[in-house]
Specification:
9 strands, disordered N terminus
């Protein structure tokens, strides 16, 4: 975990409860279930300009922005970095790695000082053991969020005239 992420537990998480309650990946959870998730995570601060995660790095956490702004960037085929998104309060990042167990797909940096809720993969695994219903709802909500983002990306690609069938065909593993 980056050293610039200063962990604080306890009442600080409760202060950000309203933001966390409205995050799509926590949708459908009761107040008690949200409390279990808040209890499993931590709140931290990231200074403006600092990198939270780097493209290609091993993933170990999901983050929710409670305050501030983050940028999500990815290297293009030409080698230059392209900004994909600016995240604000209520947005999450890192959820793809919980589903596909792959390295980080993009770099994330703080544009402003930011307050983040962090839920580590080990805490999520403990949640699975202690509260499987909460774990199931969290994973289902993450899958929905990824699907929503894919639909938006598909629409953007279609507007640019990129044939999606050919693109996906090249990404599938070939039978041996």
């Amino acid at each position: 975990m980056p050293t610039m992420f200063l962990l604080a537990v306890g009442p600080d998480a409760i202060l950000h409860r309203a933001t966390l309650r409205d995050v799509p990946i926590f949708g459908g959870l009761s107040e008690q279930q949200l409390d279990w998730i808040i209890g499993a995570g931590t709140i931290g601060e990231v200074a403006a300009g600092l990198q939270l995660v780097g493209e290609g790095e091993p993933a170990s956490s999901v983050f929710v922005v409670c305050a501030g702004e983050l940028e999500v960037c990815k290297r293009g085929g030409h080698g230059a970095e392209v900004r994909l998104a600016v995240l604000r309060a209520g947005d999450c990042v890192g959820e793809m790695s919980l589903i596909d167990i792959q390295p980080r797909s993009a770099t994330v940096r703080a544009l402003t000082p930011a307050v983040l809720f962090r839920l580590g993969h080990s805490e999520i695994a403990r949640l699975y053991g202690q509260h499987p219903d909460v774990y199931m709802m969290l994973v289902l909500n993450i899958a929905r969020e990824i699907s929503r983002r894919l639909r938006v990306a598909d629409q953007k690609l279609a507007e640019m005239g990129v044939p999606l069938g050919e693109m996906w065909q090249n990404e599938r593993p070939r039978p041996s």
